[in-house]
Amino acid sequence: MESKADRSTSGFDAVKWLVVFVLIAIGVVGNQYFSAESLLYRVLALVALALVAAFVALQTERGRRFATLLKEARVEIRKVVWPTRPELIQTTAIVVVFVLVVALMLWGMDSLISWLVSGVIG
Asked: Is 113 exposed, middle or buried (0-12, 13-18, 19+ CB in 10 A)?
């Protein structure tokens, strides 16, 4: 069952998400309105608005869960064993050769079918 505190938190989260969307809308409209201004100033303003919107979004429950997901993903990425350069080159060469062989087979079958169809049609 949902408690009163959970409902008030989710209601407050809705207000925070509304603030995030308003900030994004301000950025879009402001970028169009100030289109005559320098690109540098517009980009700096958009980055500032994006940072504020991200900060507000991270204060919500869903934002906290997303931040936790990113932290856990970063930990998992560190556990990945990346291939060495020779392994990478060898694997890439195998893939390229396989693709060329399949392409030649498809080209041969296409040519054969085309030759047969042109022989039947005349």
From this structure: exposed
